[in-house]
Amino acid sequence: MITIETGMNGALIEATMSGKIVSADYKGALEPAIEAALSEHDSIRMLVVAGEDFEGYDLGAAWADTKLGLSHWRGFDRIAVVTDIGWMRTSVRLASPVLPCPVQVFPLAEVQQARLWLRESLGAIHIVDLGGPCVEVRLLGDIDPDAYRQAEGDLDARIRERDGFRLLLDLTEFTGWQGISALAAHFSLVREHASLPDRVAVIGNKAWQHMAQRFMGQFLKAESRFFDEADAAQAKEWLTSP
Known about the structure:
This protein is of the alpha/beta class. It has 2 domains: 2-119, 2-Layer Sandwich (Transcription Regulator spoIIAA), CATH 3.30.750; 123-240, 3-Layer(aba) Sandwich (Rossmann fold), CATH 3.40.50.10600. Helices cover 41% and strands 35% of the residues. The chain has helices spanning 23-40, 59-71, 86-95, 111-119, 145-160, 180-193, 207-217, 232-240; strands at 2-7, 12-21, 44-57, 76-83, 103-106, 123-131, 134-143, 166-177, 199-204, 223-228. The strands form 2 sheets. A 5-stranded mixed sheet has the order 1-2-3-4-5, sandwiched between helices. Helix 1 runs parallel beside helix 2. The model has no long low-confidence stretch (mean pLDDT 86).
């Protein structure tokens, strides 16, 4: 059986699984809940709870689960799976790197932490006007696709407001991307704006960030330089210099 509860004005689905799950459970409970939520929201978040009384899926349910995931591949913004069942925890962790959204596994004792994780903001993109042609873009935490969608309009508006464009990219508090779709959103934003700046300063504190700046420099028309976190002031001076 699958028991459904909703939250966040319908954008969050909590699915509690018990007993042996069959295809009718998907068709009668989970699938209608997901479709109803997606009719009101561009993307949704889901909490899946499988307790000690969960006995697994039959073949029909396994196929229904696969079809449901494929048909709504881009519809999930974040998924939390709460269970103490070893095979289920392992399966979710193995699958999570190829899923298009962030996925986390929690033990049953941490179901409230799972709910908090689903509701909190994982990361953010802050855009700051530095004056003249200079704009600072600061990546914070683990970035999800929504952060890029929200940032793109702000960045475009700021570029239109000025004569010329120079970019300060601050990666000192950036920890990564939440899923493949976030990484795709990152490259899409870079590709669409790569020809616009004439100078790019990258501030970071990790070796891979320096390597990324060098790699990025091969594709940019702009002059680019990497600065260590301690040299942030020099980065701004170089960016604003004639």
